[in-house]
Amino acid sequence: MPIDYSKWNNLELSDDSDVEVHPNIEKGTFIRLRQQKIRQDRENRKTQLDALEAEIPMNKKLIKRIEKLKSQIEEDSELDFAKRLGEWSQRMEEQKDFITQFQNSIKEGKEFRPLTLDEMVNGLIYRIQEEMVQLKKENKQNTDIKSEVLSIIDKHLTNLRNREPEALKKIDEIKKEMRLHLSIDEVTKEGFSKSIITKDSGGKKTVKTKTTTVEVLNPNSVPKKITKEDVSDIPQPDDKEISLEDEEVDELDMDSDSREFGLIQSLEKTRDFIVNNIAIINPKKSDQIMAHAFELQMEGKEELAKLHVRQSLIINYVRQMGMNGVNAFFSKVVIPNSPGNAMFFNDVNKQYSHIKERCKVLIKEQQDSSATESIQLQTDDPNNSIRIYVPDENNTEEADKVEIFKQLPVDFQNALKIGTLEAVNESLAKVTGTEAEDILEKCGLGGFLVIDEEIIVENDS
User: Fold this and answer.
1) What pLDDT is stored for residue 461 in this prediction?
2) Residue 458 carries which DSSP code?
3) Which InterPro entries match (predicted)?
4) Which residues pair with residue 47 across a beta bridge?
5) pLDDT for 374
6) Residue 99, class by beta-carbon neighbours within 10 Å (0-12 exposed, 13-18 middle, 19+ buried)?
7) Residues paired with 3 in a beta bridge
8) What integer best gives the mean pLDDT of the chain?
9) How far is CA 86 from CA 67, 77, 129, 338, in A?
10) What confidence tens digit (pLDDT) does each residue in 380-412 have?
11) Where are the alpha helices (DSSP H) in 135-232?
């Protein structure tokens, strides 16, 4: 069976060395200019396609808003309609400044933020007033003006409804043009990827290190540090788990770039940061930010935690979208209520909900562990006996110690009066770790437990 190579017919190469050039034109310069033009045309087609695909759903929502405005005007009495015209006139100067700013940005080729539905409706009202001025309807009765306004609104509704088939036709033309100028990315895909790392096969090296540890009576009172297992447990946007098996990824402490990126509120500033710091697009930094989101949620800082989840997912999305991932991602997400915007923020809510539920489980585990933990005392040498001191209530000089002794639980007071370590431990086993710490602190203040050798405090669950 012959092999079909037809899919390569429309492949457009930007670095074709076989191209023929005029003898008076330097070949290298010509090829570079040709490369630039091909890439620019390719980017323009993609940008135009994205804009048209976003325009259609936006126009449908705008039509509904205008139809609602039209029905309200139709129901207005003469007095209500006159009041509406007065409100429009008060906002006319403000709308004029906004539209002038918008038009100047377009003329200068600057990028202007996407308009909201309210701004579009206000722009329509401004255009209605302009047309009314041109038709010189100011001196007519309100009823005549009202019918003229409704007529102008109908005209704009017709234009918007006719725009959808035009946009669909233009989309088909652009897609057809794109099929005539294929790039390598559009006709190829990654089959498989494999990396091999040769590890040192020599003997294991023993490195002696000096560490300082702090022993606490109740280790569960210290907030649990987020581990790589907690981060890897979060489902990713493409349902692929992030590999966290390398030793480097065990370090989930945030570096300065990740910390700064995680606190950026605006999507526009986020895009600028990525463009100026492309190294932030790294799975390790995404894991750092996600781990910090865990820590913030454990501390009860929900808004900051959700912001860090969003920033972490932005890194993942941009990284998965390839070379043009920054522009492609933000062009789809910044448009309110667009499919890309809805899909991304649904994913953010899903990931944050997972973290929220996971943190609830971790906090409950800590509370349960703390509730069941007890503290036991023992000496270095089993042959040594502990000296237990009980203050004399009749001795006025020991009034302070008697007051402290009375603050102890009755069961522990009786254990001290028995005077054995077994009785003390038996009483400590009946209370939680936190309560035992408080008891031992009071014993230290009153000097009720004294021993020549070292007392070892053990946690016993």
Assistant:
1) 46
2) E
3) Cdc37, Cdc37_C, Cdc37_Hsp90-bd, Cdc37_Hsp90-bd_sf, Cdc37_N_dom
4) none
5) 65
6) middle
7) none
8) 76
9) 21, 14, 11, 34
10) 655 556 678 888 888 888 888 888 888 989 998
11) 142-180, 184-187, 228-232
8 Å CB contact between 377 and 421: yes
Dist. CA 349–CA 282, nearest whole Å = 22
How would you classify the pairing of strands 449-450 and 455-460? unpaired
Residue 430: strand pairing partners: none
Does 209 score more than 50 pLDDT? Answer: no
Read off the tokens for 360.
Answer: 């609830």
The overall pTM is greater than 0.85: no
Other beta carbons within 10 Å of 428: 21
pLDDT at residue 212, as a whole number: 38
Cβ pair 267, 334 in contact under 8 A: yes
| 8 Å CB contact between 147 and 78 | no
Looking up tokens 């993942």, which residue turns up?
316
Cα(406)–Cα(404) distance, integer angstroms: 5
Neighbour count for residue 385 (Cβ, 10 Å):
14
Using CA atoms, how far apart are residues 427 and 408, in angstroms rounded to an integer? 11
- Write down the domain spans for the chain: 27-186, 219-370, 373-460
Q: 450 in helix, strand or coil?
A: strand
* Cα–Cα distance measured from residue 353 to residue 347, given in angstroms and rounded to the nearest whole number: 10
Residue 376 CB burial class (10 angstroms; 0-12, 13-18, ≥19): middle
Q: Find out whether 312 and 281 touch, Cβ atoms under 8 Å.
A: no
Among 411, 459, 457, 412, smallest CA distance to 433 is for 459
377 has a pLDDT exceeding 90:
no
390 neighbors 416 (Cβ within 8 angstroms): yes
Any idea what DSSP says for residue 374?
E
CATH of the domain spanning 219-370: 1.20.58.610
At residue 182, the 3 state secondary structure works out as strand
C-alpha to C-alpha distance for 287 and 106, rounded to whole angstroms: 40
User: How many Cβ atoms from other residues are within 10 Å of residue 353's Cβ?
Assistant: 12
Nearest to 414 by CA among 403, 424, 401, 422: 424
Q: Which two tokens stand for residue 40?
A: 């620019």
The partner residues of 456 in beta bridges, in order of sequence, read 378
Alpha helices in 181-255 (DSSP H): 184-187, 228-232
Residue recorded with tokens 């000496």: 379
Question: Cβ distance 449 to 424 under 8 Å?
Answer: yes
8 A C-beta contact, residue 386 and residue 451: yes
Beta-bridge partner residues of 378: 456
Q: What is the pLDDT of residues 131-171, one digit of tens each?
A: 777 776 555 544 477 888 888 889 888 988 998 899 899 99
* 351 touches 358 (CB < 8 A): no
